[in-house]
Amino acid sequence: MAIKDAQVDPVKIPGSVVRLEGAYSGLRAAEQRVADFVLAHPEELIYLTVTELADRTHTSESTVVRLCQKIGYKGYQEFKIVLARDLVEPTHAIYAAIEPGDDLATVKTKVFQANAQALRDTIEVLDDDELRRSVDALASARRVEIYGVGGSAPLALDAYHKFLKVGMQTIALSDGDLMAMSSALLGPHDVALGISHTGASRDVTDALARAKSHGATAICITHRSNSPITKVSDIVLVTAAKQTAFRSDASSSRIAQLAIIDTLYVGVANRNHERSLEMIQRTREATASKRY
Description:
single chain, alpha/beta, Arc Repressor Mutant, subunit A, Rossmann fold, 5-stranded parallel β-sheet, two-stranded antiparallel ribbon, globular
């Protein structure tokens, strides 16, 4: 019997709340108290002054303002305005987790929707200025080294494959010793790009720190905005994803990381459009004999 297409109803959630949830694990205890109140009482928040919110959460006005700035707003007033707008017209949808007894069509729908949601949420938390700085650094780099271990290793290879096609001097490394040696040889005109979902991979973090100490620009792609890798990076690109049964947030976040890599690749290629097209054509011709 054919499996019918599943119907899964989405639950709407404001984009400003997505930013807050994405940054939550990296917040200080006092900031988390403010975040907890916002997440529990978003409708009530829009009627509170910064002083009233600080009193309700037993924090200070500076803590509230600092939290708003950490998630990408100029201050409390801007956050309130955006939250009020989002509550009227929420633009994001979080889909149900996979449940025991779900048929394959339902599993398919939920997995695809979770991946699509990770992309929508990442648009909310990915900083355009950091993205622009990344493209600037990559486009002018003498050499680009890309680091990733475990589940991030294939992503590093994907970035290597893309950058190579447009004529960039690049390499992807997933061995800790090779990362250590190679990063020690980078200099002021080079870029080290580290990919780590948790931001806690010691090999990748140490390699970025070593490259930076020798003058290279260190860029990281991570899900944790306040993780060890962000402390050693000049530029931080953050993803967002929700966890569902059988699928850690790393699974959906990987889709978002690939989208960031694609954006970097296209952004770099577009800086020198004609040369990039020529390099792509040359690499295609070089591999043409490998195909049937």
